[in-house]
Amino acid sequence: MTELTINLTNAANQHFSFVIEKKLSAQGITGIFGPSGSGKTTLLRAIAGLNKNVQGEIVFNGKTLLNTSNNIFIEAEQRNIGLVFQNSRLFPHLSVYKNLMYAQKRGKRKTLNIDEIIALTELESLTNKQPNQLSSGEQQRVALARALLAEPQLLLLDEPLSALDQENTSKMLSLLIKVQQQLNIPMLYVSHSLAELQQTANNLMVIAQGKIIDYGNIHQVIHRLNQHHDGISISQQTSLALSIKQHDQEHGLTELELDTQQSLYMPMLSAKKYKTHDLLRCFIFASDISITLQEPCNSSIVNHLQGNITQINNPVSQQSKHSVLLAIKCAQQVFYSQISLMSYNKLKLKQGDNVFIQFKASAIKTLTNSSTLDNTIAKETLC
């Protein structure tokens, strides 16, 4: 099992308290989320060996990369850790292919075939171009391919999609998942976009004011963040991973399996890209889920489920002082509904009540389907 042990302080900066202590099982993709200035990039740079101001210890796969007590500091080029930045940092005087050849020559193991990596990152038509002839999305794909050809044991991604438009963001998200699955390289992925991380990460680490305030399964951590955890405010949501049951061509809907008895419906996905039984990451904003005391009948809203109120969160901030967040358990899945204080009082809701939730098909979002990207990132980014 791949393990990363971090025990760090940033003694050189007296104006910024940075204390990170965690042992991670570095499998799959680990998302790192938090406000600007919280220490996310400081952490990545320390792991990569680019920050010599930190004090403490970093151990990866049993190898000590940093131990200031014992004067151990492994230089960045000896750590076998890749880093993809916000901008591509390609060599402007080299073609795409020569940029990739340069990275491959520096790799220690040289087991990856350059043509296979070009195909994996979909760069076949770009190899003879110069970096200034590429779009931002194309440049980031080259930067990813270059990092892979160095054959790192760990790949660090520092907001790699922040400069991309919606179409390229969707494409890169799908590409990152494919790369991780095919090459089995553990990744640490920093992003300000919770939606990006919800689509890609297996686990989520939340950092605020230089400290880890939460870590765990991506869906569970997102649900805990709904409570305005330690000053971090997000657009409250239900985070899901559901199996695709079928594509309903006649009605333009994709059916998702909630359990063996119940389904959810969303706008139809590409049947070519999304196969039956594939697991789909998706989410629903709490403000898009309404509550009713009786089962909806003769309604145009296609999704409605019976559930039990397990938690009621009264307003905790000035921004949400006129709304209430409800946690409703439906078929072993917890859904979050944000309703007005007026509706809450009118319905006289209390914990343990049986209710029905309802939401439109269009309320179910997934960022790997570009048609659902509109306004989503703007709505869910860190408040």
Gyration radius, to the nearest Å?
23 Å
Element-level helix/strand string: EEEHEEEEHHHEHEHEEHEEEEEEEEHEEH
Measured distance between first and last alpha carbons: 36 Å
Question: Which ranges are low-confidence, i.e. pLDDT below 50, for 5 or more consecutive residues?
Answer: none
Name of the top-level CATH class of the largest domain: Alpha Beta
Going by CATH, the architecture of the largest domain would be 3-Layer(aba) Sandwich
How much helicity do the residues have?
Answer: 10-25%
Could you outline the blueprint of secondary structure elements for this entry?
Blueprint: E1 3-9, E2 19-25, E3 29-33, H1 40-48, E4 55-60, E5 63-67, E6 72-73, E7 81-84, H2 96-106, H3 114-120, H4 136-149, E8 154-158, H5 166-183, E9 187-190, H6 194-200, E10 203-208, E11 211-217, H7 218-225, E12 237-248, E13 253-257, E14 263-267, E15 279-285, E16 290-292, E17 303-313, E18 323-330, E19 333-340, H8 341-347, E20 354-359, E21 364-365, H9 376-380
Helix pairs in contact: 2-4
